[in-house]
Design goal:
Number of strands: 24
Distance between the termini: 107 Å
Strand content: 5-15%
Mean pLDDT: 87
Number of helices: 41
Structural class: alpha+beta
Low-confidence stretches: 1-55, 166-172
Shape: elongated
Strand order of the largest sheet: 1-2-3-4-6-5-9-10-8-7
Length: about 1100
């Protein structure tokens, strides 16, 4: 039965009824699920009866006698009218007597009339009160009213599951859930809930916040005057600056008209809400307040404020937890309050009562509060485990189990990717036969890190061994044994965790890196530290190779579940590989190499929802890392630390990280008490050095290119013409800036004969027009916008809108002949061991003899070796060629520690110029050493590059340890090394405060890195490799002492009575080899 009504406030109201829950008809039960969606109509009517194909329609009227027909019609009309009148006469008094006062206060008359008519119609039809109504407001908002018989537990939760889920759409019709009203009749025969989608854009004409809010302002004045300070029940809020009239009016102006109406009727609760909302404003937190209802025992108000979330998600999470803790929701409302740049705050107010009528202990409320706070950040796998499958397990143990399963997946997948798939690991551990062992492991984890009574090492080892024996005796399946055993290893190898942090976003583990080693993998360098974070729809690894480390954070969002499973299996390996490459690249700077890879399950999501999830995942990941590295009263109280050393790490932006993420991370690091928050994340929009704007990576790449052109190809690019091909668009960072530098430094000598990007490729053996290329760069346009009029007679432009264009683009880097090839963009592993021969011409010679890797991982290690061995291709490896970016980011970190944002901004032009000069100098030092060692010792350039990195890092590590044994005076004597490393303006402004502003460990690392790189670049790798490791640090320190002595001799030489030519030669000899020679002279 579908009944349509209209009112002054609604465009349409569609009434839908279905068979009662008590029906035993299978067809009825089946069809009920089809008519859940509000406003839909079942083809077989409200009862769901399927008409028989053989039956014929039978009319209520005689077919031939018109008089009889008229009598029948009048009789039916009279009978129905009388019946409806009797029903309405019965329903109206019942409705008025049983609906709560708040219903008549909050719901407009037009809606109340619609509700009465709908209830009367169904009662008149002798059907259960099972109604769905959909109303369209004049301002575009939609109202869904669900009416159900009785007030059974979980009614609100079930309605939420029936609601049309609109929060994930990108269409113009998208409207968020913004209000909720929940009511129950006093005789408990009916539940009536209203869900409002969409926000009212404007307030009523003549709206005056101050005048309307007089009851709130008056009550606030009483609070501020201290009239309730001596109240015995303590139900009134304490005085607060937020309740001063001016501040309160600013807040009231942000509240919706409807929410203000609520505040007018209950100013006390409104101000309590104000304090709850304030506690989460500007954060990602959740605040919960529970108090008993004044009017009678057994009822409690649960107030929840959730920052920056989908209102529907918050409502569903709270309803689910109340249901699980056996509470009925008798009344409820939802309001959304604006929170400036932090989105909105969802405010929930629920009147609940125990479904079994029992008394509720404070412990139950404490657990409920904790779980409501956690619900926003729980992954669906955890929620399914603890809310649907094993209620006895508890949220924390469930989160530990799902977290451990995600953590060990990449390790076990290396043994057998199919058997140890992520889903199989979780399914095995949570099987009813094994879940109790997993729960015991989680309990052991909790007891080991209980800040109030942590297990002693002896007790931990004893319980761990007992649990291993129990599992070994009772679990026969090999796969389950392996997984449970690995979970026990995780407990042992976890050095810190945030599991007891009261307001944590996700679950984080600071791990001993040994846990990630597979039994059958080849030996390789262990990272210094690993942090794993398990959160809502994301898992993240942070891998670093030194105590103080820096590296980018990338977000990985596979498009579908199959790809997500593959990425999960290789997530750690990707993170390890990127961090290790960063370690090689970071040789010239104080920070070691690190990387963070945050794998996010956004499969099947719209762009809007995906963006929302990515921003949430960044926050959850970063906050959980901060839990483990900041030292505050809160972390000291709640984190048991088996590592026992301060940890310093710095992040940078990588794939899919946006400026909003950067700003939030820096601000949050400050809020969390990180020592140097501005340094925690590089590439700040205002106080950073934008890599693309200043071309920092390309500046370094070009230095390597010039040195290699001169020394490998015998070309002086300032005097001779040379040809270049590039991948990466003119609109990109590295390629676009390289084009500008080539034109700036070499003019017409630089002939760019080929360029390919995602849109297509342009080729011209005479060189592409420089002005046209610069036009594309300056206007951020891809190569497909290159004007064909600017091509030479043999030039060609191919666009990727045809198969031929795609083929030309994909093969350009192999086909086009040039002196040098600079990959500045393109897919990782574009050239690998299966296709490297395409780079060779028919006679076996390469299309370019020189490659300078501006992009990371464009060529695999195996392909590099094959190209060099078979065709003599000289390749400057990415970890050398594009290190300009990491050098710049390191200077950003130091600037953030030494300078205020204003100081940096005021001197930015000069500082950036000095940074560029510094990175060019470091690039030239390595480029010359690289080619010298290559010419002297042989081998391929990538091998030499890694040897240089290893030598510098080896010396740096040895020196870092040795500096601890020096006296403070001796360490101070080395401080000029750090000063000389800095841009001059930065040093002049603040170096005299270096000890006050820069952590001691960072200063030590800076001195070590400066001395190590100085030593290797000047004396070569053989000098380091020939030394016993035990003498490396002492020799390096002695070397610096001898350098000072040589400098003093040179200064005296200037005053000697010798010809200037002789002075210059002696000075040059002393500078070149004096310090090294002096090392072997007797003291």
């Amino acid at each position: 039965v579908v009944v349509t009504s209209s009112s002054a406030t609604t465009n349409t109201a569609v009434l839908q009824s279905s068979c009662s829950f008590g029906s035993t008809t299978a067809a009825c039960k089946k069809d009920y699920s089809d008519v859940i969606v509000p406003g839909s109509r079942h083809e077989y009517g409200s009862l769901g009866d399927v008409p028989s194909p053989q039956s014929k329609a039978v009319s209520w009227q005689a077919a031939h006698n018109v008089d009889i027909q008229n009598v029948t019609q009048k009789a039916l009309i009279y009978e129905l009218t009388q019946q409806q009148t009797r029903t309405i006469e019965s329903v109206v008094p019942w409705f008025l007597e049983n609906m709560p006062e708040s219903y008549f206060r909050q719901i407009p008359e037009q809606f109340r009339m619609d509700h009465i008519k709908a209830v009367s119609s169904i009662r008149d039809a002798n059907m259960d009160l099972y109604l769905n109504l959909k109303s369209q407001m004049p301002d575009g908002r939609e109202v869904y009213t669900f009416i159900r018989p009785g007030t059974s537990s979980g009614t609100l939760l079930h309605m939420l599951e029936e609601l049309r889920f609109k929060d994930g759409t990108d269409s113009a019709e998208y409207q968020p859930l913004t209000r909720l009203h929940v009511f129950s009749s006093q005789d408990e025969t009916m539940s009536l809930n209203m869900f409002v989608y969409g926000a009212r854009e404007t307030r009523p004409l003549g709206f005056d916040v101050e005048q309307l809010s007089t009851p709130i302002l008056d009550y606030a004045g009483q609070v501020q005057a201290g009239e309730f300070l001596n109240d015995a029940d303590g139900r009134h809020p304490a005085p607060s600056p937020r309740f001063e009239k001016e501040q309160l009016l600013k807040y009231l102006d942000k509240c919706s008209h409807n929410y203000l109406n609520f505040g007018i009727t209950n100013p006390r609760r409104f101000l309590l809400h104000r304090e709850i909302i304030n506690s989460v404003s500007g954060t990602e937190g959740t605040s919960v307040n529970i108090e008993s209802e004044e009017s009678g025992p057994g009822y409690y108000w649960v107030d929840v404020a959730v920052a920056n979330t989908r209102p529907r998600n918050a409502l569903e999470n709270v309803c689910r937890l109340l249901y699980l803790h056996k509470f009925d929701v008798t009344r409820s409302r939802l309001d959304v309050v604006k929170d400036s740049d932090n989105g909105n705050i969802t405010m929930l107010r629920m009147l609940v009562t125990p479904s079994d009528g029992s008394e509720v202990s404070q412990a139950t409320f404490d657990v409920l509060k904790r779980e409501i706070k956690r619900a926003k950040w729980l992954d669906s796998s955890t929620m399914n485990l603890v809310f649907d499958r094993y209620l006895w397990l508890g949220v924390v143990r469930g989160e530990i189990i799902t977290g451990m399963c995600s953590l060990i997946h990449p390790v076990l997948a290396k043994e057998n990717a199919i058997i140890y798939s992520k889903s199989n690991i979780l399914d095995t551990v949570t099987h009813k036969r094994f879940i109790r062992y997993a729960a015991d492991i989680a309990s052991l984890f909790m007891d080991r890190f209980n800040p109030h009574n942590p297990l002693s090492e002896e007790d931990f080892e004893s319980r761990s061994q007992e649990l291993r024996k129990l599992i070994s005796s009772n679990v026969e399946e090999t796969v389950a044994l392996e997984i449970l055993g690995k979970m026990l290893d995780v407990v042992k190898c976890t050095l810190k965790t945030n599991v007891y942090m009261p307001n944590r976003y996700a679950l984080s583990f600071r791990l001993d890196p040994k846990i990630m080693v597979s039994p059958h993998e080849a030996e390789r360098e262990l990272p210094y530290g690993i942090i794993f974070v398990h959160g809502r729809r994301f898992n993240g690894y942070h891998v670093r190779f030194r105590d103080i480390a820096r590296g980018g954070m990338r977000l990985v969002t596979p498009p579908h579940q199959e790809q997500y499973a593959l990425e999960s299996a290789r997530q750690y390996e990707e993170c390890y590989g990127l961090a290790f490459a960063q370690q090689l690249k970071n040789k010239d700077i104080p920070e070691g190499g690190s990387k963070a890879v945050n794998l996010i399950d956004a499969s099947g999501m719209s762009d809007t929802s995906k963006h929302f999830l990515m921003r949430k995942s960044v926050k959850g990941f970063v906050d959980s890392i901060l839990d483990l590295i900041v030292s505050t009263d809160e972390t000291k109280e709640n984190i048991v630390d088996y590592f026992g050393k301060p940890e310093i790490l710095y992040l940078g932006p990588d794939e899919q990280v946006i400026p909003d993420d950067i700003n939030w991370i820096i601000g949050h690091a400050a809020r969390r008490g990180y020592g140097t928050p501005a340094a925690f994340m590089s590439s700040k929009p205002r106080a950073g050095i934008n890599h693309k704007e200043f071309g920092v990576t390309s500046e370094g790449v070009n230095v390597y290119l010039e040195v290699a052109l001169r020394r490998v190809l015998g070309i002086d690019p300032t005097q001779e013409s040379f040809t270049i091909k590039l991948t990466g668009g003119p609109d990109g960072d590295v390629a676009g800036n390289e084009i500008k530098i080539l034109v700036r430094e070499y003019g017409d000598n630089a002939k760019i004969v080929g360029l390919a990007d995602v849109s297509g490729c342009a080729e011209d053996p005479d060189g592409l027009d420089h002005e046209e290329l610069l036009r594309l760069v300056n206007n951020t346009l891809s190569i497909s916008h290159f004007s064909k009029d600017k091509l030479g007679p043999n030039g060609k432009l191919s666009i990727c809108d045809t198969d031929e264009g795609i083929k030309a683009r994909n093969s350009m880097h192999n086909r086009v002949i040039a002196d040098a090839f600079i990959p500045c963009g393109g897919r990782p592993n574009t050239v690998d061991i299966t296709n490297y021969k395409h780079y060779l011409q028919k006679d076996g010679t390469p299309s370019s003899k020189l490659i300078v890797e501006g992009a990371n991982l464009f060529i695999t290690a195996e392909a590099r070796t094959a190209l060099f061995n078979e065709a003599g291709v000289v390749i400057v490896k990415d970890s050398s060629a594009n290190k300009g970016g990491v050098i710049t980011s390191s200077y950003e970190i130091i600037a953030a520690m030494l300078l205020t944002e204003e100081e940096f901004f005021e001197n930015k032009t000069q500082i950036v110029a000095e940074v560029l000069e510094k990175l060019r100098g470091l690039a030239k030092l390595e480029a010359n050493l690289l080619l010298t060692e290559f010419e002297t010792n042989g081998g391929s350039l990538p091998e030499v590059s890694q040897i240089i990195s290893n030598c510098i890092n080896m010396a740096k590590d040895a020196l870092s340890v040795a500096l601890d044994d020096l006296t403070e005076q001796d360490r101070e004597a080395l401080l000029p090394l750090f000063r000389a490393h800095l841009p001059k303006t930065m040093a002049d402004l603040a170096f005299d405060e270096v000890h006050q502003k820069v952590p001691a460990q960072y200063i030590k690392n800076a001195i070590s890195s400066c001395l190590a790189s100085k030593l290797v670049y000047k004396e070569g790798t053989s000098f380091i490799l020939s030394m016993p490791k035990g003498k490396l640090a002492s020799t390096a320190l002695k070397y610096i002492q001898k350098e000072r002595e040589i400098a003093a001799l040179i200064e005296k030489l200037d005053m000697a009575d010798l010809p200037d030519e002789d002075k210059a030669k002696i000075s040059q000899l002393l500078e070149a080899g004096g310090a090294r020679t002096a090392l072997n002279m007797p003291e």
